[in-house]
């Protein structure tokens, strides 16, 4: 059975999954447009509104509507409603679209801790610096509740990985000792909301980060697929704890068009793997076998071990070439 036959929707991460640095990843546009099932887009990036994200997807050639986009900005506002009255003053660190969304939700947006806000909402915005973080610290020390759209430590760009919102939040937490509440991934809220908006009973979550996309999908009791086009690489998968292990391992989104058995951890490509003490030995391999086939072969073995292996030892020339590609 093909992967897509087993589900009625895809809940897709964006950065590192659909695009990197704003440029679509090779094959992503064609796959998404032709997959034949409903798509939702679940992003921890709070710097753009759902409409702006949909516009960007359309400019990239992917047909999308704002209703198909779930952002962490929306999620944190929904989370804050559980403890914050409408009309409360809120200090917002983030983009203009985030500020507008908070205002439209019935809160009084202020710019200074001197205005005695009841809460601080922090979302990613590259213009946030020391003055803004200090205002947040002043407000939190004075008793304001602290909410963050997401806690991603890094953000993929066309130059590599930049500082993410979680790293900026960490500065305030370290300074104040405050507890921050996040509704972004890996919390299940966004996944459940996205599936509900699509009317999806059997969604598959897809992303490039184990600690957000995959862990969040598991928290929402959903199957998941990791793509190796962003943050996660083979060694992160080999060392992944149980709550961050995806159902499927994909080189790119295009792999999801394959039969599901090919994407599950297990021996393939002619490779074999076995435990040798604290190590794993990878042997054999067909002439045209790929590094990701070697990885899936190894993962079936290492995920059954009580601890991650000390070393992965390639024992054939083909296995050696495959492991070299992991780095």
From TrEMBL:
Record SUPFAM superfamilies: HAD-like
Origin: domain of life: Bacteria
InterPro entries for the chain: HAD-like_sf, HAD-SF_hydro_IA, HAD-SF_hydro_IIA, HAD_sf
Record key words, sorted: Hydrolase
Species assigned in the record: Corynebacterium massiliense DSM 45435
Class in the EC hierarchy, top level: hydrolase
Coiled coil ranges: none
Keyword Hydrolase recorded: yes
EC code(s) of this entry: 3.-.-.-
Protein name stated in the entry: Hydrolase YutF
One Gene Ontology term of the molecular function aspect: hydrolase activity
């Amino acid at each position: 059975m093909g992967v897509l036959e087993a589900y009625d929707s895809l809940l897709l991460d964006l950065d590192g999954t659909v695009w990197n640095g704003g440029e679509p990843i090779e094959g992503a546009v064609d796959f998404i447009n032709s997959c034949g099932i409903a798509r939702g887009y679940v992003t921890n990036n709070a710097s753009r509104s759902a409409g702006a994200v949909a516009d960007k997807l359309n400019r990239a050639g992917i047909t999308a509507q704002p209703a198909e986009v779930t952002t962490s900005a929306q999620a944190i506002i929904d989370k804050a409603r559980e403890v914050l009255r409408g009309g409360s003053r809120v200090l917002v660190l983030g983009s203009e679209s985030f500020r507008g969304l908070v205002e439209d939700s019935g809160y009084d947006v202020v710019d200074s801790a001197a205005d005695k806000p009841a809460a601080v909402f922090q979302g990613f915005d590259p213009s946030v610096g020391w003055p803004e973080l200090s205002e947040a610290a002043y407000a939190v020390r004075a008793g304001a509740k602290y909410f963050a759209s997401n806690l991603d430590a890094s953000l993929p760009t066309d130059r590599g990985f930049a500082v993410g919102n979680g790293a900026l939040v960490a500065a305030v937490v370290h300074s104040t000792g405050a507890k921050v509440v996040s509704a972004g991934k890996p919390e299940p809220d966004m996944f459940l909301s996205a599936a509900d908006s699509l009317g999806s009973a059997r969604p598959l979550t897809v992303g490039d980060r184990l600690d957000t996309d995959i862990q969040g999908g598991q928290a929402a009791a959903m199957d998941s697929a990791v793509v190796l086009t962003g943050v996660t690489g083979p060694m992160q998968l080999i060392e992944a704890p149980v709550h961050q292990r995806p159902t499927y391992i994909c080189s790119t989104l295009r792999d999801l068009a394959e039969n599901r058995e090919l994407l599950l951890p297990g021996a393939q490509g002619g490779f074999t793997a076995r435990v040798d003490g604290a190590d794993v030995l990878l042997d054999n391999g067909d002439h045209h076998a790929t590094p990701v086939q070697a990885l899936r072969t190894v993962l079936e073995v290492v995920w059954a071990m009580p601890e991650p292996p000390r070393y992965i030892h390639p024992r054939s020339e083909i296995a050696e070439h495959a492991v070299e590609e992991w780095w």
